[in-house]
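[09:14] KT: can someone run the structure on this one? pasting the chain below
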Amino acid sequence: MHKEHHVTSSETIRDIVIGMSDGLTVPFALAAGLSGAVTSSGLVVTAGIAEIVAGSIAMGLGGFLAGRTEADHYNSELKREYNEVELVPEQEKAEVKEVFAEFGLSTHLQDQIAEELSKDKKKWVDFMMKYELGLEEPDPNRATKSAFTIGISYIVGGIIPLSPYLIIHTAQEALYYSCGVTLICLFIFGYFKSKLTGQPALSGAIKVVIIGALAAGAAFGMAKLINGK
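[09:31] RB: done, structure tokens below
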């Protein structure tokens, strides 16, 4: 039997990807940059933790606002559609017919479907929202869930590049271990992210590693340049 394989990554997975991606990259680049300017791992840890806290809040707030915007947009369009089926029902029926015309249905069937659909206002509006506007009703708790998921994912990602600095007291020595651990995690993260989104896993993993390495290298080089070392 033929089985179809489709990408079904949820909104939660998308939020985890967003949070982890920035959580791994930004604190890693910050730690690398500071390692080029200071010798104490304590300073790197302090700055890194401050960045993780601020970054997780900012990212979480961004996720919350995006979720609220999505919900507000859906509710606004829903209200407009209800008004239109009340005020201009014939025009709305014509739009229903247009949808089915694109599927190749006959004019007779288009008329029948439009008439049947117009008997139930809620189903009529739901149909218009989905097939005319391409909008699905969002989860009412989506904004809060998104904020929490992105924020926690950012924290988890950010702890990884900082962990060697908690053990090793010399910043530049800790940087070597941080690079090793973080680049391995970036590769694993990039691999599974690409698998979930239906992209070539190996090339996706390599791209994520290159981006993280370039960000850290640029920050480290800039710190060295500024300090004249």
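[09:33] KT: thanks! The chain has eight helices and no strands.
[09:34] RB: yep, looked fine to me
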